[in-house]
């Protein structure tokens, strides 16, 4: 298994986990682009938004609800949710993930 995020899910690579349940893991981005930069990752290996199928629609809704839950727990005043899709869309890791960004500097560089 070459996927870095699957290795994080399987605890083969350490990460700063901020949330975990049976379907999702969320952890701090190793190279934060904002004061708060959390990656929310479905444990199911879906390579990108371009690979989502109808059977995944509940999971994708729940992905956003996990972001909302983390934002509420951290009392974030406001935040951005970002998904890069494909190499030309700025996606570096081919395992679907939602970026949760908050804090002033998130306006600077989002790799888009
Ligand atoms: P993408 O460009 O694919 O949307 O975002 C991938 C993100 O994963 C980048 O912001 C990058 O900093 C982060 N990242 C890459 N490798 C690791 C890692 O091993 N651990 C953590 N915590 N984040 C990573
Ligand atoms: Zn994976």
Description:
The protein is an alpha+beta fold and 112 residues long. It is 21% helix and 21% strand. It has two helices and five strands. A five-stranded antiparallel beta sheet has the order 1-2-3-5-4, with helices on one face. Strand 1 and strand 2 form a beta hairpin. The longest helix has 17 residues. The model has no long low-confidence stretch (mean pLDDT 94). Bound molecules: guanosine-5'-monophosphate and zinc ion. The site of zinc ion has 5 residues, from helix 1. The site of guanosine-5'-monophosphate (5GP) has 15 residues, from strand 2.
Fraction in beta strands: 15-25%
SSE-based structural type: alpha+beta
Give the strand order, joined by hyphens, for the main sheet: 1-2-3-5-4
Unreliable stretches (pLDDT < 50, length at least 5) are none
Spell out which ligands are present: guanosine-5'-monophosphate, zinc ion
What is the makeup of the main sheet?
A: 5 strands, antiparallel
According to DSSP, the number of beta strands is 5
Mean pLDDT over the full residue set = 94
Cα-based radius of gyration, to the nearest Å: 13 Å
Give the CA-based shape.
Answer: globular
| Helical content band | 10-25%
Q: Tally the helices: what do you get? A: 2
What is the succession of H and E elements?
A: HEEEHEE
The N- and C-terminal alpha carbons lie at a distance of 28 Å
């Amino acid at each position: 298994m070459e996927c870095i995020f699957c290795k994080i899910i399987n605890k083969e690579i350490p990460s700063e986990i901020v949330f975990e349940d049976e379907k999702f893991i969320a952890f701090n981005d190793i190279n934060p682009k904002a004061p708060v930069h959390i990656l929310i990752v479905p444990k199911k290996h879906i390579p990108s938004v371009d690979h989502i199928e109808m059977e995944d629609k509940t999971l994708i809704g729940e992905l956003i609800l996990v972001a909302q839950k983390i934002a509420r727990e951290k009392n974030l005043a406001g935040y951005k949710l970002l998904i890069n899709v494909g190499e030309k869309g700025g996606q570096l890791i081919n395992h679907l993930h939602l970026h949760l960004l908050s804090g002033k500097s998130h306006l600077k560089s989002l790799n888009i």
